[in-house]
Amino acid sequence: MVIVLIEEKRQQMIELALTHGFTAKETIQCSQELDELINRYLRETAPIDHSSSPVPQ
Predict the structure, then answer these.
(1) How far apart are CA 10 and CA 28, in angstroms?
(2) H helices within 1-57, ranges in order?
(3) Do 37 and 3 touch, CB atoms closer than 8 A?
(4) For residue 23, how far is the Cα from the chain centroid?
(5) Model-level pTM greater than 0.85?
(6) Left if phi > 0, otherwise alpha if psi is -120 to 50, otherwise beta: which for 21?
(7) What is d(CA 33, CA 45) in angstroms, rounded to the nearest whole number?
């Protein structure tokens, strides 16, 4: 499940930040990967928006 992946990546990012610094390339790369996982989760769980669909006549 993507929630587990998000939590694992978050923990990895924290460890990298504490070890290498918040602006280290390893930390930034991990942060970007975390962003991708969060975006994936949001896409998968977002409600379907029918308001922009054309209304049949």
Answers:
(1) 12
(2) 2-20, 25-45
(3) no
(4) 19
(5) no
(6) left
(7) 19
**Could you tell me the CA-to-CA distances from 16 to 12, 33, 37, 54 in Å, in that order?**
6, 13, 18, 48
Contact 1, 41 (CB under 8 A): no
The letter for the amino acid at 50 is H
Both tokens assigned to 52: 């922009």
Give the pLDDT confidence of 6-45 residue by residue, as tens digits.
999 999 999 999 999 999 999 999 999 999 999 999 999 9
- What are the residues whose beta carbons fall under 8 Å from the beta carbon of 40, sequence distance 6 or more? 2
